[in-house]
Amino acid sequence: MNTSSIYHCLGLQDQQLLSTSYVGDTIQLKVKTKKDKLRCSRCKRMHVICCGVVERSFKGPMIGKKKCVIIIDVQRLYCKKCKIVRQEHLRFAKEQKSYIRSLEKMVLLLSSHMTIQSISRLLDLNWNIVKDIIKSHLKSKYHSPGLKGVKHIAIDEFAVRKGHVYMTCVYDLDKGVVLHVGKGKGSESLVPFWKRIKINKVQIESVAIDMSAAYILSVKTNAPKATMVFDHFHIIKKLNETISKIRRDLYNKEKDKVIKKSLKGSRWLLLKNPENLNLQKGEDSRLEKVLETNTTLFYAYYLKEELRELWNQDNIRDASKLLKQWIEEANETEIPQLKKMVELLTKHKTGILNWYKCNISTGPLEGINNKIKTLKRQAYGYRDLDFFMLKIKAMHQDIYAKCG
Ligand SMILES: [Zn+2]
Fold first, then answer.
1. What pLDDT is stored for residue 154 in this prediction?
2. In 3-161, which ranges are E strands?
3. 247 and 173, same structural domain?
4. Which residues lie below 8 Å from residue 149, measured CB to CB, with a gap of 6+?
5. How far is the CA of 43 from the centre of ligand 1 (A)?
6. Does the residue 15 lie in any domain?
7. What is the DSSP code (8-state) at residue 127?
8. How far is the CA of 402 from the centre of ligand 1 (A)?
9. Dist CA 220 CA 203 (whole Å)
10. From the CA of 87, how far away is ligand 1's center (Å)?
11. Residues whose CB falls within 8 Å of the CB of residue 228, separated by 6 or more in sequence, listed in order
12. Do 133 and 169 share a domain, yes or no?
């Protein structure tokens, strides 16, 4: 090792190598800042007078099998401009950090493909240091994603811990970027996002959301001119839940053992799209049998299939007609469980049909949701929610990285 190699291999700028020693499994590199490179850490100028030293050590990346530690007598400098005494400015490390920049770069390079734990093992680094490096990088890059040109967004919630902790995600539907992650699933989770929208004078044109009252109010208040589109996946999901409930209630009341048995295994058959039924396994005939013996289920199933057609119409007028007809038919069946669905669709008619004015949905967020699940598994459930939120914002970057 010499002065040139510590510069080229470890990025130790402005440093002169004084000595190299080997202590156990560690290489200790004693360095010193070249006299003509001493700078004030506040104004970065060179009008300084030396007034003592403090010994500090920094972690570097491993060199072969050896751990690497850089030891430096950091100069305390009096700056003639700032009129204060401070430790010298070190270009090879960030302020208040105990590792050098080249180690940081290596960790970040590995972080798009490896977990904190595996990086920590590979580089023989403390888990907290690895996390600190990744977190401060993500913070500087993704804390406030740019909002310029944002027009079409989707808002949706996802569960962090099963059913207990929720987060709200705002997604730019044009660029495929997560713009905001907020704690909770109410309107308060969106407050910082709307604040930034206002400051940046961004005009949101359309928003895809589910039919949650909190989100509706939040959009109406903060983006009154935006077209609100109620997501069709959520509507079908709600109807599927209703059908499941009808089936469950029927099962519980049914006395006939044969009918009860056929009802038992029919949940997925009822929810599956007919084109996905497995004919070789006889799923179609099993479904037929269930529907033949239960008039209530037959109507509910028929209505489910009819509602799916709502998004296959030629124009908003035809769709509006179909929705009106659907509501009438559902009312006529007098199935109590469908009542809520009728109320929901009647109340949110405009937002549902807005899909024909603006073809957007929260669908792309479902993809993000799946990736969040993987992220949770990789990290054994994130305890540091801020870190978790930053990881979500950086997710699209990882996707690019993985594509090469
Ligand atoms: Zn200064």
1. 94
2. 15-23, 26-33, 48-63, 66-79, 84-87, 152-161
3. no
4. 174
5. 4
6. yes
7. H
8. 43
9. 13
10. 11
11. 206, 207, 209, 216, 219, 220, 351, 354
12. no
| Residue whose pair of structure tokens reads 């690019």 in the numeric block | 400
Confirm whether 210 is domain-assigned.
no
Q: Which residues of the chain carry a pLDDT beneath 50?
A: 398-404
Residue 225 domain-assigned?
no
Residue type for 119, please?
I
Show Cβ contacts of residue 313 under 8 Å, excluding neighbours closer than 6 positions: 319, 322, 356
Say what the pLDDT of residue 208 is.
95
> In angstroms, what is the span from residue 77 Cα to ligand 1's centroid?
9
Q: Does 91 reside within a domain?
A: yes
Of the residues 334, 356, 378, the one at which a domain ends: 356
pLDDT at 286: 83
Q: How far is the CA of 15 from the centre of ligand 1 (A)?
A: 20
Residue 315, domain extent: 232-356
Domain shared by 17 and 132, yes or no: yes
Same-domain check for residues 48 and 76:
yes
Look at the chain and report how many structural domains it folds into: 3
- Show the tokens assigned to 107: 């960790």
Q: How far is the CA of 47 from the centre of ligand 1 (A)?
A: 7
